Each structure stands twice: as structure tokens, then as C-alpha cells.
């Protein structure tokens, strides 16, 4: 497993991009909403400041503005938009090593304030927003290896409490909130290597139960909740190499069924749900290098079709669904290094 971290470090010519990537894998649903919420916050701020200087109709100017700095430098952390609009960042790796601290961004003031510490340092973990508004963090790498522990952040008290342990230590896994509120955690890297195991967290009991195994071991895969309630996992790396395979989890049976293969093997790719329910997967790395291609999964046929290419090859990028249904793809690692370009699907 050490070479994997080595490869990650080689790739980490831009920490920001990796941060974005890790954040976007944290939970496809919550990170998509967190990215779109934070970008709409930026434009709200821009338009309100311009409307004070001009009484004419104003529109937000697209672009990036610097906002408050976090109290701690960090990478490989998570970011979650809370119900009241503040953004919680937690853990990661900073200059003193792995972090247990967390801070809140207030979009009204642009200021970060420290909040409760997690009980464990963790990086490469996943954060999921539960239906009750609490934030569940799972697994990741702690001070002495990968973690099976999980903890809950309560936004109204600003404190963390430990909750049930997973059956397996894991990092680089995925977490998906099912329609019934349970959290499905799948795959990742564990103490014995790549995992095919999956487990369910029940927020009302605070306990985990194992559920069906995926057919393939996978890490650095993506997971997405489909309009029909199934969870789609796609690609990643596993004990049999780079994966183009994809599988569906049925919450009602607790089992996985394999579905169509993607055209390419992909890891460090992104996933987005289009307004018509189709699933867009874009970029990443794979056996043919980093592709600029994108593919669409059709729920009804269970098949993937290649769609328009992106203008750039990208891995470690992010994808966020805008309110109008377009998908915004940002940055990533391209054929000439880190990218500042962004494009819309
Ligand atoms: C968090 O932990 C740090 C040391 O790691 C400590 O200095 C700080 O006071 C703690 N913060 C809280 C809110 O407990
Ligand atoms: C959201 O709630 C937290 C915890 O109570 C608080 O610290 C923060 O200021 C709130 N954010 C906003 C935008 O009101
Ligand atoms: C979780 O596991 C750790 C050891 O890995 C143990 O110290 C802790 O008590 C466990 N927590 C629960 C809630 O079982
Ligand atoms: C499960 O994965 C193996 C490769 O590990 C593959 O040969 C097999 O076809 C897969 N099973 C199904 C049902 O796709
Ligand atoms: C992948 O897509 C390319 C171009 O669309 C096509 O030529 C090729 O046959 C496809 N490969 C597979 C395995 O579907
Ligand atoms: C959904 O929309 C995409 C992009 O417009 C299109 O390519 C795809 O075929 C549509 N899917 C279905 C199932 O209609
Ligand atoms: C997408 O780009 C690949 C090369 O990366 C090329 O082979 C393929 O023809 C392109 N597909 C389309 C639809 O332009
Ligand atoms: C969504 O908004 C973006 C930015 O304004 C625009 O470029 C894009 O064309 C819009 N998409 C749709 C489907 O209207």
C-alpha cells in the first residue's frame, strides 16, 4: 500500500486539486451540493456588494475571489455544507502531520472558526451529511494506520461523539446516503489491501451491519445514488488491476449486481447525475493514460455510451451539478500538469 501513497505524492503537484478531488469523493451527493452551495454563496456575495455600489440590475461576475483563510493548513480533508449554510472542514494532513481539528466557514462573514476536535486524527476519510443534519465521518488514515472508527459532528453543539465502529478499517472508500437514511460504505483500502466489503450505518441505532460484498475489490472508485434508489459504483483500482466494471447495489435486497462496463478503465474520475437521470462519468486516469472522454450510463438499458469529449485531459478534478442542470468540471491534472481551466457539460 505504500506505493499508492508514493504515487499520490508524485501526483500532488497541486495540493488544491487533490483537496478538491478528495472532497469530491467524500460523498457524491453531499459534495456536489457543497460545491454548488459554496459557489452560489460566492456569487451572492459578489452581487450584493455590487448592488450597494450600483442601483442598476446586477448579475454576479463569474470568477474566483479570495475569502477567509482556514486556521490550519490542510490537505486530504473533507468539507461538508451544513443545513444552516456554514461549511465544516475536518481533519486532513497539515504541517504537524495528520489533524484531528475541524473548523467552520461562515459564508455571511467569510470567517473560519475552530470547532470541536475529532477524537482521532484522520485523513483520506469520508464525510456524509445525515438526514438529521449531523455529519458522519468514516475511516481514513489515523496516526497508526487505517481506521474503522466513525464519529458524528453535531452542528448545534459543535462537538464530535464517537459512534459504532465499522467492521473493517478503510480509507479511499465511498459513502452514499440511501433513501431510508442509512449510509452505505463500500470498498476502499484496508489492512489487507483492496476491499470488496460494504457495510450499512443506521443513524438511529449508531451501529453498522455488513451487507453484500461487491464482486470486485475497488478503491478510488466513484459511487452515486441513482434516481431509482440503487447505488452505482464504477471503476477504481482493485486486486485485479484497473477497473472498467460497474456494479449496482439494491438497498431492498442488500446485494450487488454487475452492470455494463465503461468503455475505459478509470480512477480519479468524477460522477454526476444529469437531470434526466443518466449518469455522467468524466476523465480520470486509466490504463490508456488520462482520457478526455466522458461516458453516460443509461439506467434503463444498463449500458454506457461515450459522449462528448472534454476539451482537456483531467484526473483529480471535480464535477458539480449547477442548479440549471449543467455540470461544471474544474481543474485536475492534465497532460501539461495542473489545470486552472473549467468546462461545462
Ligand atoms: C483541539 O486540539 C488541540 C491540540 O491538538 C488543542 O490545542 C485545542 O485546544 C483543541 N480544541 C478544542 C476545541 O478542544
Ligand atoms: C451554523 O451553526 C453553527 C453552529 O451553531 C454556528 O457556529 C454558525 O455560525 C452557523 N452559521 C450560520 C451561517 O449561521
Ligand atoms: C472502536 O474500536 C476501538 C479500537 O479500534 C476501540 O478502542 C473502541 O472502543 C471501539 N468503539 C466502539 C464504540 O466499539
Ligand atoms: C466478477 O468479477 C470477476 C473478475 O474478478 C469476473 O470474472 C466475473 O465475471 C464477475 N462476475 C460477474 C457476475 O460479473
Ligand atoms: C470504446 O470507444 C471507442 C470509441 O468510441 C470504440 O472505438 C471502442 O470500440 C470502444 N471500446 C469498447 C471496449 O467499448
Ligand atoms: C440524458 O441527457 C443526455 C445529455 O443531454 C443524453 O445524451 C442522454 O441520452 C439522455 N439520457 C436519456 C436516458 O435520455
Ligand atoms: C475523443 O478523444 C479521443 C482522443 O482522446 C479521440 O480518439 C476520439 O475520437 C474523440 N471523440 C470524439 C467524439 O471527438
Ligand atoms: C447553465 O448555466 C451556465 C452558466 O451560466 C451556462 O453556460 C449553461 O449553458 C447553462 N446550461 C443550461 C442547460 O442551460
Description:
- With 345 residues, this protein is mainly beta.
- It has a domain at 69-213: Kelch-type beta propeller (Neuraminidase), CATH 2.120.10.80.
- It contains 3 helices and 33 strands.
- The chain has helices at residues 2-11, 15-26, 28-53, and strands spanning 78-81, 87-90, 93-94, 97-98, 102-106, 111-115, 126-129, 135-138, 141-142, 145-146, 150-154, 159-163, 174-177, 183-186, 189-190, 193-194, 198-202, 207-211, 222-225, 231-234, 237-238, 241-242, 246-250, 255-259, 270-273, 279-282, 294-298, 303-307, 318-321, 327-330, 333-334, 337-338, 342-344.
- A 4-stranded antiparallel sheet has the order 1-2-5-6.
- Strand 1 (78-81) and strand 2 (87-90) form a beta hairpin.
- The longest helix is centred in the first third of the chain and has 26 residues, at 28-53.
- The radius of gyration is 19 Å and the shape is globular.
- The relative contact order is 0.11.
- The model is unreliable at 1-56 (pLDDT under 50).
- The structure holds 2-acetamido-2-deoxy-beta-D-glucopyranose (8 copies).
- Residues 101, 116-117 line the site of one 2-acetamido-2-deoxy-beta-D-glucopyranose.
- Residues 1-16 form the signal peptide.
- It holds the Pfam family Kelch_1.
